[in-house]
């Protein structure tokens, strides 16, 4: 397709390891700028991966599709899930491919062979993307791809197939050539698979309500970043949580450690209502932007009947019971995730502590 350096993703924090004597210094690539010190490591594991067959796919393809979709939705929302599934479908037909041109990949579990340069894995990533181990791992390779998507300034507004082409830099660059079969369609190879990717994601959504979400029947769905930012070790989402609420909760928990910024709605920073709005967008529901808007969303409920995904509204530092100015998302187990205030980060706290200054209301969304 293109030379190795051209396949190097545009990363927000690409660094080179430079050895100086006994010391190792992390140096940000100057052309890309140094990464801000507050940028947290993104969630590297799927917060909630559903299981089960998907129409038209082998079991292996279905498992890969569910992994890619779960990670993308948890990190960046449903638009990113479409881009990621469509790209993996185009590049590898949702198979983890080894490559005889890079024999290191054959040491890892694979579902066939590819022959495009030295590309490996679901996203056919060349060595500039990462190690063979990372490129051959469905979770790690998806995160590498999402890192590049998140770093692309226009990914939220451009058509999905164009974002895929911008990130992957395939031969379908809008200029007819032997490599793209004479196509003049920019990202046309990805566009061809967009409808199928949508159908796969729809199938995942339809089947997810009865799926085990990666947990044994009757057990809690485990969250990969439990044990950090106030989320207790061993925390899991109740298995009977509806899929929409589960997606909202897993999205919100994937943002743990990201800084508070008034007016921010992600993906790097959030204020309180920006976090709950983004979480429920991942759950398939559009909420109003502000705490005042969200105080009227869904239907009223109470602490006695509170469920994961419910909004918990409190007076905050400058509001009142009648006019709350702070909101959090109940995640079950007596816990609330929220973006607290300037100088702090998204974290989890006990519900009892969260409402110690008064409870303005609880809203059930779905």
Order of helices and strands: EEHHHHHHHEEHHHEEEEEHE
The main sheet comes to: 6 strands, antiparallel
Physical arrangement of strands within the biggest beta sheet? 5-10-6-7-8-9
How many strands?
10
- Give the N-to-C terminal Cα separation: 45 Å
SS element count, helices: 11
Number of individual domains: 2
Q: Low-confidence parts lasting 5 or more residues at pLDDT below 50?
A: 1-47, 209-220
> What's the overall average pLDDT, rounded?
82
**Proportion of residues in β-strands:** 5-15%
How large is the radius of gyration?
Answer: 21 Å
Task: Based on Cα principal axes, name the global outline.
Answer: elongated
User: Approximately how much helix is present in the residues?
Assistant: 25-40%
Class based on secondary structure composition and strand pairing: alpha+beta
Explain what you see.
Helix content is about 30%, strand content about 10%. It is an alpha+beta fold and about 375 residues long. The protein folds into two domains: about 45-210; about 240-365, endopeptidase domain like (from Nostoc punctiforme) (endopeptidase fold (from Nostoc punctiforme)). The strands form three sheets. Strands 5-10-6-7-8-9 form a six-stranded antiparallel β-sheet. A two-stranded antiparallel ribbon has the order 1-2. It has a two-stranded antiparallel ribbon with strand order 3-4. It is elongated, with a radius of gyration of 21 Å. About 45% of the residues are buried. The model is unreliable at about 1-45 and about 210-220 (pLDDT under 50).
